[in-house]
Specification:
By secondary structure, the chain is mostly helical. It has eight helices and no strands.
Length: 230
């Protein structure tokens, strides 16, 4: 492949890893509410339903599964490429070597969550809850670790845009705040489910928004050229 083609392919992986789940889940919600399966509202502020509720029954479930299953594969590829990128910047840390495995596990749990969503058996419900918690935890932890390595490479003088690093840190800070807010909100508010759903929707969007930022860093550091030499 030509260097420009490699660059475009890399950018596509990072961008699609973020855009596909955002578009897919929101489209699934629109279809679900249009069919009367979930309430109609602005979910990011009103929290009238959960993310999972949009993917339980057709037609929403068809779009939900058709976008999240490919998302799992694409994010697994993303984490492998992220590790190669850090290597190309001279990072030989244990964290760099661990990222592909964490990303692969996160992708497995996302696939499991998507596959069992919609089944009414209690055992499937337990599997779904475990899978989504494991996925979100692993994905967030991977993003935290990658950001730490990006900061290290930035301080080492690599051509990583400063605004990309700041944007990644800001996204992670907001996600952590949202996660920490959920516990007291569930204890001290009467309408805890609404708060939980609002936090859930916003957290998931921020989690997905992290990935396209990496495309900017890959492009700025010339990762496409380095990858083409392997």
């Amino acid at each position: 492949m030509k260097p420009q083609e490699i660059r475009d392919a890399l950018i596509a992986v990072a961008v699609v890893a973020g855009v596909l789940p955002i578009v897919g889940v929101n489209l699934a919600y629109w279809l679900a509410q249009d069919a009367g399966h979930v309430p109609s509202c602005f979910v990011f502020l009103d929290g009238c339903t959960s993310v999972s509720a949009t993917g339980r029954v057709p037609p929403g479930s068809l779009v939900f599964k058709a976008t999240l299953l490919p998302t799992a594969v694409i994010t697994a590829i993303y984490w492998y490429l992220a590790s190669l990128w850090l290597q190309s910047l001279g990072d030989r840390s244990p964290t760099q070597r661990m990222l592909p495995w964490m990303g692969f596990l996160a992708a497995l749990f996302l696939s499991l969550y998507t596959a069992v969503l919609g089944h009414v058996d209690a055992s499937y419900d337990i599997a779904r809850r475990i899978a989504v918690l494991a996925y979100l935890s692993l994905a967030l932890m991977s993003q935290l670790l990658l950001t730490r390595r990006v900061e290290d490479r930035y301080r080492a003088g690599k051509l990583i845009p400063r605004w990309v690093l700041r944007a990644k840190v800001a996204l992670l800070a907001v996600m952590i705040i949202l996660g920490l807010t959920l516990i007291p909100a569930s204890l001290w508010t009467a309408d805890s489910k609404t708060i939980e759903y609002v936090l859930e929707w916003n957290f998931c969007v921020l989690l997905a928004a992290y990935y396209p930022l990496t495309a900017c860093a890959w492009s700025a550091t010339g990762f496409h050229l380095r990858l083409g030499t392997h």
